[in-house]
Specification:
5-stranded antiparallel sheet, about 30% helix, globular
């Protein structure tokens, strides 16, 4: 149990800390209600341990390991940066393989797209999403794409797939407004590719998960951690050179084999299948 708290606290606190180094959030940011823990739910996180695992207001106060939380509170927003540039992750990204098309695959995939289009139409106005319980993941941070995440749907996705209930809605910010561009579905990290194929055919969609994460030694200063995560020769995190448990142990780090759940992005308002299920776009190259 303690390890799970440590895993998610490392990544979430890293994101929060970077926001503290940026300018104050714009007054034009939409109100998201009270600062509840669910507002800061990490998209696609593992909900299998219960609701407490997605309460960020509690997790940021959990012990980080040998040193207390203050030693990690100044870490960079490594996770946020990484999730906007997935194609640079190399050995830190695991993707499903495209499978040969089976009878019925196209029809099953189209059913998902049809339901996703209805969802997109419903939430074209981001205020409707907020009213329905979606919360912006770190609205105070400048991002290429904002995840409006439903903790309720994230938990549901641990047990069953409902294309009407995406874990996150994906918006681009345009001035004071948000434009919906896509949806994100998640699945438990324990799932095999056969399990994922039952949700969305793997002949059409490619799911991904973030793997081989090495957290830096707790003894590092905040400045050293920023460099270790985001520096030119970064060693740690989802863009670091360390990608094995042996190398992580040798560097004094803490190895995390799989960070988040399986994820897949869907752009239902596009016209052709390649654009709807675009791997390049979902991995940040077209953001």
């Amino acid at each position: 149990m303690r390890n799970r708290f440590v895993i998610f606290t490392v990544i979430v606190v890293a994101s929060i800390a970077w926001g503290q180094t940026q300018s104050a959030p714009s007054s034009s940011a939409p109100s998201t209600g009270s600062q509840s823990g669910s507002q800061q739910s990490m998209p696609g996180m593992d909900m299998s341990g219960g609701a407490s695992h997605h309460d960020m207001s509690n997790m940021k106060d959990m012990p980080m390991g040998d040193n207390d939380k203050d030693n990690d509170s100044d870490a960079s927003a490594h996770a946020m940066h990484s999730m906007e540039g997935h194609m640079d992750m190399g050995p830190h990204m695991k993707m499903t393989s495209l499978r040969p098309v089976k009878p019925g695959d196209a029809a099953r995939a189209q059913q998902v797209v049809d339901e996703a289009r209805k969802v997109s139409e419903k939430y074209a106005d981001y205020r409707t999403a907020l009213a329905d319980g979606f919360h912006i993941f770190h609205p105070e941070l400048p991002q290429k794409m904002y995840h409006f995440t439903s903790s309720r749907y994230a938990i549901e996705a641990q047990f069953r797939f409902n294309p009407e209930h995406p874990t996150s809605l994906l918006y681009e910010k345009h001035g004071d407004d948000y434009k919906l561009i896509g949806l994100m579905y998640t699945a438990p990290k324990r799932f095999t590719e056969d399990d994922l194929d039952q949700r969305i055919p793997l002949s059409v969609a490619q799911w991904h998960e973030h793997v081989n994460f090495c957290a830096p030694p707790a003894s590092m200063t905040p400045a050293e951690k920023r460099q270790a995560y985001l520096g030119h020769n970064a060693q740690f995190g989802l863009r670091g050179s360390i990608n094995t448990e042996e190398a992580c142990d040798a560097a004094g780090g803490r190895f995390i084999p799989v960070v988040f759940n399986w994820m897949v992005h869907l752009y239902p308002m596009e016209k052709d299948q390649a654009a709807i299920w675009s791997v390049e776009r979902q991995h940040g190259d077209a953001d």
